Please model this.
Amino acid sequence: MEKGNKSPRKRIFGILIIVSIVIGFIIYGAMREQFGLSFLVFFSGVPFLLFTAGAFGLLWPKIKPEGDEVYISHALIIGLLFIVLFFIHVWVLLPLLCPRFAECLAI
Model:
């Protein structure tokens, strides 16, 4: 019975990742000139949120804690995952949107 429950969950998290990538290509590729730069910078959090939720959901069965002694390592792994995804977002994706990021935030 448990195998039937895993498949829909994996599909949902996979769909979240796909939706985040599709939003990224549509908003930041095809429709980039139709939006203001400040909107693009602040809206970039939405695909980031969807992608991190999908990645966390897909990785959860492999890293979920099994006892009290592993909660520290679990927290460190999750923190590492989020910081890597955040650094990719801030140091790779946002500079592609705005090479001079500080000037883009000045409204």
